[in-house]
């Protein structure tokens, strides 16, 4: 009789572990919804050209991230060098693990920005890019104008959907990091 209780307890524990592993696998590999790419449309705004460089844009983006205080388990900052680099830490088993993601920025014709994944490192552990991007997409609350597409290994930044004061809009024109030329149009409403 005593051996039978241990056998039941062991099999119950194994069953609970299997259910937990299946549940985690479903959460990790669940696809992230993609939003459609917006076509450029005619607007009733006046464009003002803004040209900047990597250093100034890095400061501006990090200030925005700090000011917005976006919620999530990942604390990160951006550095714009020859690529757009995202540095941060992932909390894993009560330990902060260093991560770095590098992207190639592409200014699209509709004014949005596409960040194509180039490199990823998490500590010394090589992980599949889609796995890490899926984890980040599921664990972090990004603004509605940022879409993470793990299967395409890219981040789509809908600059034209950003909420700026006074109804202003922004669109990317040039994002040439090699030449250190970054150009945007600020679109000011005429009404």
From TrEMBL:
Organism: Niallia alba
Name the record gives this protein: YpmS family protein
Transmembrane segment boundaries: 6-29
Top-level taxonomic group: Bacteria
Swiss-Prot/TrEMBL keywords: Membrane, Transmembrane, Transmembrane helix
């Amino acid at each position: 009789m005593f051996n039978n209780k241990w056998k039941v307890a062991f099999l119950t524990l194994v069953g609970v572990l299997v259910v937990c592993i299946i549940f985690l696998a479903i959460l990790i590999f669940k696809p992230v919804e993609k939003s459609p790419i917006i076509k450029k449309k005619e607007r009733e705004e006046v464009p003002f050209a803004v040209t900047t460089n990597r250093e100034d844009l890095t400061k501006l983006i990090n200030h925005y991230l700090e000011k917005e205080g976006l919620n999530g388990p990942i604390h990160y900052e951006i550095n714009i060098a020859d690529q757009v680099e995202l540095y941060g830490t992932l909390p894993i088993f009560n330990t902060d693990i260093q991560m770095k993601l590098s992207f190639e920025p592409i200014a699209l014709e509709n004014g949005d920005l596409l960040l194509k994944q180039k490199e990823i490192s998490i500590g010394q552990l090589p992980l599949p890019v889609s796995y890490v991007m899926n984890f980040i997409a599921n664990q972090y609350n990004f603004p509605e104008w940022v879409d993470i597409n793990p299967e395409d290994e890219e981040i789509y930044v809908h600059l034209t959907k950003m909420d700026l004061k006074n109804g202003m809009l922004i669109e990317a024109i040039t994002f040439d990091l090699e030449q250190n030329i970054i150009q945007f149009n600020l679109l000011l409403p005429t009404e």
